[in-house]
């Protein structure tokens, strides 16, 4: 399963899109150090945190994509940083719980 | 790569959350250019970011020095902040003294020092209350 396949399967709204790449797992959380301690390279990270530290954490953990749940929209600085770092950022009206269930089902 | 370790210095700007993480991103790029493995880059840059954020939150900034040779990467983070009263307690996952405005940004989960230890191969901390904290992280360049 790749980033673009998950995007299409869940009807995600692209906020910034870079290259397609494989998604190998998932992680959900808003506490950034917790995410940095647990998320793996290639993960789909689901969160409602939306400030400019999100792109930094996405880039450093090498997450394949970020989905902002509940239609949360990152601020302009975060979107600029997503562009600078070639990150895949998406938005969805679904809750974190619903997104986790759907992504897990796609990856299994 | 030469036998002499490559040394890079970064000033970490205190109180500036919009630029926090810049040094880590630069280190990530540097290690990529030097041909380090993705897992080494991930471990080093996350640990470095945690250190940078800690210096911004608690110590009004500080100095970060990175030394890279063929086999090892060493990071020295030095600040002249308030120091840590109980290092053992600060090393526990979930223990945090970060203020509410920092928590609202998604930090202050009490995972900074534990993550630095988790991702490094060697971890040293020297902290004196009223004088500051120095952290030394070592990574095998594998």
Descriptive account of the structure:
The complex is a heterodimer of chains A (108) and B (142). By secondary structure, chain A is α/β, with parallel strands linked by helices. Chain A has a single domain (3-107), classed as Udp-n-acetylmuramoylalanyl-d-glutamate--2,6- Diaminopimelate Ligase, Chain: A, domain 1. Chain A has 5 helices and 5 strands, in the order αββαβαβαβα. A 5-stranded mixed beta sheet of chain A has the order 1-5-4-3-2. Chain B has 142 residues and is an alpha+beta fold. Chain B has one domain (6-140): 2-Layer Sandwich (Heat Shock Protein 90), CATH 3.30.565.10. Chain B has 5 helices and 5 strands. Chain B has helices spanning 22-33, 38-58, 87-90, 100-103, 112-119; strands at 6-13, 61-68, 72-79, 122-128, 132-140. In chain B, strands 1-2-3-5-4 form a 5-stranded antiparallel beta sheet, with helices on one face. In chain B, a hairpin with a 3-residue loop joins strand 2 and strand 3. In chain B, helix 1 packs antiparallel against helix 2 (38-58) and helix 2 packs antiparallel against helix 5. Chain B starts with 5 loop residues before the first strand and ends with a strand. The model of chain B has no long low-confidence stretch (mean pLDDT 92). The A-B interface holds A 30-34, 36-37, 41, 49, 51-54, 56-57, 59-62, 77, 85 and B 17-18, 20-21, 24-25, 28, 38-39, 42, 45-46, 49-50, 53, 105-107, 109-112, 114-115, 118.
């Amino acid at each position: 399963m790749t980033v673009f396949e998950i995007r299409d399967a869940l009807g995600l709204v692209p906020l910034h899109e870079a290259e397609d790449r494989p998604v190998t797992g998932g992680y959900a959380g808003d506490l950034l150090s917790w995410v940095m301690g647990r998320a793996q390279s290639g993960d789909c990270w689901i969160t409602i945190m939306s400030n400019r530290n999100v792109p930094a954490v996405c880039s450093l953990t090498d997450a394949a994509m970020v989905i902002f749940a509940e239609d949360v929209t990152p601020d302009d600085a975060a979107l600029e940083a997503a562009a600078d770092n070639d990150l895949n950022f998406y938005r969805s009206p679904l809750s974190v719980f619903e997104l986790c269930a759907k992504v897990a089902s796609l990856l299994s | 790569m030469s036998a002499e370790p490559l040394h890079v210095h970064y000033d970490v700007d205190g109180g500036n959350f919009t630029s926090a993480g810049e040094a880590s991103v630069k280190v990530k790029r540097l290690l990529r250019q030097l041909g380090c493995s993705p897992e080494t880059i991930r471990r080093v840059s996350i640990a470095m970011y945690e250190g940078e954020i800690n210096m911004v939150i608690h110590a009004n900034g500080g100095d970060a020095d990175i030394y890279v040779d063929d086999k090892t990467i060493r990071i020295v983070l030095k600040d002249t902040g308030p120091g840590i009263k109980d290092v053992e307690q600060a090393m526990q996952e979930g223990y945090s003294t970060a203020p509410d405005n920092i928590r609202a940004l998604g930090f202050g989960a009490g995972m900074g020092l534990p993550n630095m230890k988790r991702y490094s191969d060697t971890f040293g901390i020297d902290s004196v209350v009223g004088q500051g904290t120095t952290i030394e992280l070592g990574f095998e360049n594998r």
